[in-house]
Amino acid sequence: MIKRTIKQIVEMIPVQNNLTSFFDVNITGVSIDSRKIEKGNLFVPFKGEHADGHKYVAESIQKGAAAALWQKDVPNPPLDLPVLIVDDCLTALQELARKYREQLAVKVVGITGSNGKTTTKDMTTNLLSLQYKVQKTEGNLNNHLGLPLTVLGLKEETEIAVLEMGMSGRGEIEFLTKLARPDAVVITNIGESHLLDLGSREGIAEAKLEIMQGLKPGGLAVLHGDEPLLMERIHQFKPNVQLQTFGRSDTNTIFPTEMTQTNEGSVFNINLSKQSFDLPVLGTHNIMNALAAMLIAHYFSIPFEKMAEGLKKVKLTNMRMEIVEGKHGEKVINDAYNASPTSMMAAIELVSNLQGYEKKILVLGDMLELGPQEKQYHRQIGEGLNPEKIDVLFTYGQLGIEIANGARNRLGDGKVFVFTDKQELVKELVRHVDQNTLVLVKASRGMKLEEIVASLQK
To answer: Among candidates 294, 299, 77, 110, which has minimal Cα distance to 187?
Structure first.
């Protein structure tokens, strides 16, 4: 994490007051939460709708913070304390992160995409850690606030940082990538998330390609080569970058020559190596994520034989194709972190093809931020279900009703259950499960379907 004196901090960001008497004070790390202050932290207060962090500046310094920022339009700064008066606290935090990034020798890998960002980040970190000191974005700190905090949390000795870059609209990825200045970037895919803000998949592709604007000249761009929306637009960046692709097609730089799904994960082979790879993660879509991570690892000179050992030990962030056991012995795939039509169809395909279960149940909730066609997208999920491979469907939420409407002609009324109350859903669901049942739970994060998973486990 950042370790600088106040004198050095003042040289990195514009500060409006005289802090000469505090120049020798040492800063260690940054915190935006007064309840989590650690000794030596720089506390950054924000003005919110319901609270103003400036009220806690003095308290934070008493708790051990070495200094704090103070936004100039907030009255009565405590000038007897080491407070740095700035135009805007968020802008100052971002600029501090930008300057700190410039001072580090770290290599940066930037990852974005509609689906699979976090999974690819986890896999890439795992592979790079076989040979380097690596840090990654923790949790969902992938936006205009989270990414600067992640950068400021990098250790001086870290050799590679794997940074996830999220967005909700145009210009956000451009801002993040220009701050992080990556040496290599990955775009996992183009889905339907953010259609509400961007209007079309073409708009999403253009927004994701903003990551190229911060890529260092000659750096590596790893793209999903089976996605025409990316491949049609990447030509404008080609002269200044190395381009490599992954996907199912044999026209890609890396592609699977064999893929086998098991109840524990996946086994696959690739065109670039005779090595076989075991991945303890479910889903063909996660093999695609692994291929992207492997291209990054290969770029940093990690041999495929070594990658095979690393992939065996991959652990993903919670609620991403996580298998847990219910109290009746049922197996539950907890994929409740997020959902789009693309990722939901991929999860359903996985469940449909897994062997060894007498009954397969889907618990599907609303997919959010899909724009004017959201009902149609949900209905299409239901219409695409195969009654020979899916036995029962439970839906939750108002848009989940559309999934159910699409599924009734496929599965029949007696196999489709609609709920807007989670407790009632669980009461009915437990009547249908036993030790030979597989349950998929999936929806957008805002639906909090992990609560259903927790109830099954209890």
So the answer is: 110
| Cα Rg of the chain (Å, integer) | 24
Range 104-311 classified under CATH 3.40.1190.10: yes
Q: Report yes or no: 398 and 443 within 8 Å, Cβ to Cβ.
A: no
What is the spatial distance between Cα 170 and Cα 204, in angstroms, rounded to a whole number? 9
| The pLDDT value given to residue 330 | 94
201 φ/ψ angles, rounded to the nearest 5 degrees: -65, -30
Residue 194 has a CB neighbour count (10 Å cut-off) of 23
Buried b (16+ CB within 10 A) or exposed e, 435-456: eebbbbbbbbeebebbebbebb
3-92 topology per CATH: 3.40.1390
- Alpha-helix runs per DSSP H in 235-315: 284-299, 304-311
Question: Looking at the chain, how many residues does it have?
Answer: 458
Is the pLDDT at 192 greater than 70? The verdict is no
Q: What is the pTM assigned to this prediction?
A: 0.81
Q: How far is the C-alpha of 316 from the C-alpha of 54, rounded, in Å?
A: 37
What are the distances in angstroms from CA 121 to CA 124, 186, 276?
Answer: 5, 9, 22
CA 204 to chain centre: 16
Confidence of residue 196 (pLDDT cuts 50, 70, 90): low
Is domain 322-457 given the CATH code 3.90.190.20 in the classification?
A: yes
- The residues spanned by each domain of the chain are 3-92, 104-311, 322-457
Q: Decide: residue 222, CB within 10 A, 0-12 exposed, 13-18 middle, 19+ buried.
A: buried
281, 435, 286: which is closest to 356 by C-alpha? Answer: 435
pLDDT band at 198 (very low <50, low <70, confident <90, very high): low
3-92 and 104-311 have identical folds: no
Q: How confident is the model at residue 70 (pLDDT cuts 50, 70, 90)?
A: very high
